[in-house]
Amino acid sequence: DMAEPIQQLTRNNSPQERQTIPFTLIQRKEKLGDLLYEKRQYGKAKWACIKMKEKQYEQSICLGFMKLMRYICEQNSSGLYLGITIPIVTIVHTNESQSEMTQSVTVAYYLPEVLQDQPPHPFDSDIIIEEWPSTIVYSR
What is a single molecular function from GO for this protein (predicted)? Predict the structure, then answer.
């Protein structure tokens, strides 16, 4: 089921073709010279998002990512490969008291700059295009 998106990705995605999302570095945490994480601020932008709720957290992330890859690799109203932006963001949801994680996660793909004004519509109705305000992201 993922053969075509993976082939499309490997054909069209050399490292120089990956678009890094513009951000402002807020904090960088290192330990013994190794980067643990960065706290970044991304500006207001449009993202393709999918919310998943599988039995395992990792399964939700994988399935959400696969659905987004189909959107990126031609299953969209433009019929074109959209290009990869990095990072792909995973939002972990917590219960109401914020004391524990739930099984629900959102996987989000930043739409490349050239698509921000008119993003292609996804064929998968589970994927929605959202405009996020300026957002703080922790990246590893």
Answer: heme binding
